[in-house]
Amino acid sequence: MNVNELSEYKDEELVKIYLKTQRNIYFEEIYERYSDKVFRKCFSFVKDQAKAEDLAHDIFLKVITKIGTFKEDAKFSTWLYSITYNYCMDSLRKKQKMKEDPLDYPMEFMEDEPEDELLSMKQEGLQKSLEQISPVEKAILLMKYQDNFSIKEIAETFEISESATKMRLLRTKEKMKKLYLEHIAMITLILLKILLILRK
Hints:
Blueprint: H1 3-6, H2 11-21, H3 24-46, H4 49-66, H5 76-94, H6 115-119, H7 123-130, H8 135-145, H9 151-158, H10 162-199
Helix pairs in contact: 2-3, 3-4, 3-5, 4-5, 5-8, 5-9, 7-10, 8-10, 9-10
């Protein structure tokens, strides 16, 4: 079987065939599809290329050892990203490093808020706010609003109830909103001081 033929298979089909045959060619196709995505998710946590590469490498080793636990009725990408988030958070906990650089993409996690309020949330403010939340809080937001995890899938990842998951999401959104407003207030104060200096 050549590479072109493999590209026609769904992720879940490749996993099933790999488990049945144990031929590396099938896992290599999965790796090719997801290695860059996993690396970028790791990088969003550590903001260091070498560390992100190490994390991604370890994650795929973990995937190989745990792939037999993958359930065919689940979506492979969701299962893989759950492992990715958990591994990144565990790594950060061990290093007691709870603050990272901001993420480099927009986060529309305020969809429950009025539309005009959502539109006023500028990228810079979001990034500064993301610096100040924990890896767990960041992961919950990424799962829900970047990777479209369901509440049930997030709950299963963190081994908590769905109601607890909803509460964590709500609290994290409120925390982000508060941090964002504080950031904007600080920027406004700095601009006012600059204007006063320029007028002298």
